[in-house]
Design brief:
This protein is mostly helical. Helix content is about 75%, strand content about 0%.
């Protein structure tokens, strides 16, 4: 009876997991199928199968005479990569300060950082516009990187606080007893031990910057400086939706992030699970 019950449980679990996987993967599958169809096949012969599949949409998308999508991908890599590096660098020091040091109103600073992350971007874009204009960073990738730090740094700081709390304080103290300064203990002891957490936070920060649309649409006007989400939004002209081209661009934009998550999935799971213990 026990063996039969265990078998039934396995069947139930695998059935639920299969259904969940189909629900998650179906939009991705449908996006890929539409990207392989011409407009006449999309509207006249709707099908979930790759009938009359063609790569013409991808050819048109990456044709330099018809657009600059490769340039848009490069811009997204520059902006997302730079914002991720700067935010993780500063947020790691901020998280270390909030977790390890003792000073007045420390807890309130932590709450304010979380509040800054929870503030909607639609509320911040007006003051950010004024700041960017005064700094003369409008319509530049540098200005866009600066703007992306407003949401990536608070998130990175909050996540790293949870991970740093899982690392024993004794390690820092032992390093300082051996003659290391607090800065040396931070860079030589804490950061190497926090590699899984840093990678997990970097993946989330990169993904957030890579997929961001609102700020990229507001602060960049030049076609040569558009990021991938902004470039995809401009594929819609008036009331004309070129679904094949839009889906081809969406698939191309999703591939780098999917590769990143596949390569870092072990660190993401380890980093988040370790940080969740002490949050």
């Amino acid at each position: 009876m026990l063996t039969r019950l265990t078998l039934q449980q396995k069947i139930l679990y695998y059935s639920l997991l299969t259904i969940l996987a189909l629900i998650i993967l179906f939009p991705i599958y449908y996006m890929v199928i539409i990207s392989l169809k011409l407009p006449k096949d999309i509207y006249r012969t709707p099908s979930l199968l790759p009938i009359n599949a063609t790569t013409q949409n991808y050819v048109d998308l990456f044709d330099p005479d018809k657009g600059n999508f490769l340039l848009n991908i490069r811009n997204s890599f520059i902006v997302a990569g730079s914002a991720t590096f700067v935010s993780v660098l500063f947020s790691s020091m901020a998280a270390y300060s909030l977790v390890r040091l003792r000073y007045l109103y420390r807890d309130w600073f932590g709450r304010l950082i979380l509040l800054a992350y929870l503030t909607p971007g639609s509320v911040l874009f007006i003051p950010l516009s004024v700041i960017i204009a005064r700094l003369q960073l409008g319509n530049t990738l540098h200005g866009l990187i600066f703007v992306y730090l407003t949401f990536s740094t608070p998130l990175s700081t909050w996540l790293l606080m949870g991970y740093f709390k899982s690392i024993p304080v004794d390690l820092d103290e032992q390093a300082m007893v051996d003659g290391a300064t607090r800065i040396q203990a931070f860079f030589q002891i804490l950061l190497p031990l926090s590699a899984p957490g840093l990678i997990a936070v970097s993946v989330f920060a990169f993904t957030g910057a890579w997929n961001e649309l609102l700020f990229g649409l507001l602060f960049v006007t030049s076609p040569d400086l558009r990021t991938v989400p902004v470039a995809i939004s401009y594929l819609i002209t008036g009331d004309v939706f070129r679904w094949g081209l839009i889906m081809a661009a969406s698939v191309s934009a999703a591939v780098p992030v999917m590769i990143l998550y596949y390569m870092a999935q072990r660190f993401v799971v380890k980093g988040l699970s370790a940080g969740a213990v002490k949050m």
